[in-house]
User: Fold this.
Amino acid sequence: MNSLYSDEDVAFRNELRAFFQSSVPPGLRRKVQLEQNVSPEEMREWHRILDAKGWAAPAWDANWGGTGWGPMQIHLYREQMQLAHAPLPLAMNINLVGPLIIAFGSDDQKTSFLPRIRNLDYWFAQGFSEPGAGSDLAALRTSAVRDGDFYVVNGQKAWTTLAQYANWMFALVRTESGGRKQDGITYLLIDMASPGITVRPVITIDRDHHVNEVFLDNVRVPVAHRVGEENRAWNYAKFLLSNERLFGARTALTNLKIARIKEVAAGVMQDGKPLTEQPWLKQRLTLLEIELRALEITFLRILFEVQQRKPGEFDTKSSMLKMKGSELFQRADEIMLEVAGPAALPCIEGFLQGKPTDQLPVPEWAATASQKYFLNRAATIYAGSTEVQHNILAKAALGL
Ligand SMILES: Cc1cc2nc3c(=O)[nH]c(=O)nc-3n(C[C@H](O)[C@H](O)[C@H](O)COP(=O)(O)OP(=O)(O)OC[C@H]3O[C@@H](n4cnc5c(N)ncnc54)[C@H](O)[C@@H]3O)c2cc1C
Assistant:
């Protein structure tokens, strides 16, 4: 594994490690280590620390706060940040809307939005999915009708992650219907304080508030907040989603989960021996670790290929990373639940009765394990479901 890294990569990794080990606020580090929710204030503070170092948005164009690092350096940055128990910068801001404004936005949009996106003054939510438009995103119906210098937007967005904290939303809206459904879609930046916006919480099966419904009722959006050309946003969305999937392997996070399983299992006894000495657990963890190593090597191989390509070119292989990465991520949660064993049962019953996790009659780690198990069932759905990734890969393999 180590031979895949050059001497420069190793030196760079050491530099990253030293910075993250000294700069992550201890309270934040502990929360991330215990897989607890991070508050918006903590997230802002972390973004500002990164931004002051020039590392909030390393993959961006160097003229707009990026670093000029290549994919291998970005990978090491993400890996070392996660291993230091720091949250990755907000994906909606840094991976999704920022690169899109850089690629397709006006100079005014770049000047006014990009610094605020980097330091999280602007917290963006992603308004793509709708009831009836998820995997088949082009079926979206939220409409935007031109009225002078404004669009008047009406419709509903679904599953909008952390919209309760967001002061902006980037949204796909329909500006033309009648032709091919991929045509007629436009990309807008919407101020969440605009009259006519209602954010309604959706409590997921883990009994927490991560996602929302967003209703738009005659919301007036300045034309100046349209990114790129009217009716051309389908191509922009594809550009965004390819960005999202390349780093979907999540190997560092799954490695951290494995370390946490071992830590916790060492303190749980079965037949007079800690669980870490039980053959069933050793076997489950070894199989997971072997598959994870294979995924890491595959990821690095794809990363080397990506480095040879022009910026923005997309390869279907990132679908493989997202698919396998989310499955292994879920497998780690399943093993943690097995380690919790009978302690998982009161958690599941407690969730169904709506009890907060700190009121459950089990150790905190077991409650968290059950909660994460439920939350992360969604990992094989969001950012493109496993079935849809299978379709993409099958088409590529068959040359369709
Ligand atoms: C926790 C969470 C957070 C999310 N956050 C956001 C967000 O912030 N912003 C946002 O815009 N969206 C978000 N989403 C929405 C997410 O992108 C969609 O849920 C996803 O694209 C699937 O769409 P859907 O829910 O409409 O399911 P559907 O598309 O209706 O799919 C239902 C099932 O059918 C399968 N299926 C669908 N089409 C095919 C096909 N052609 N072939 C085979 N099987 C198929 C799917 O794999 C799935 O199992 C989030 C979702 C979740 C669960």
User: Anything to note?
Assistant: Residues 126, 128-129, 134-135, 159-161, 210-211, 378, 381-382, 385, 387-388, 391 surround flavin-adenine dinucleotide (CB under 6 Å). The chain has a mean pLDDT of 92.
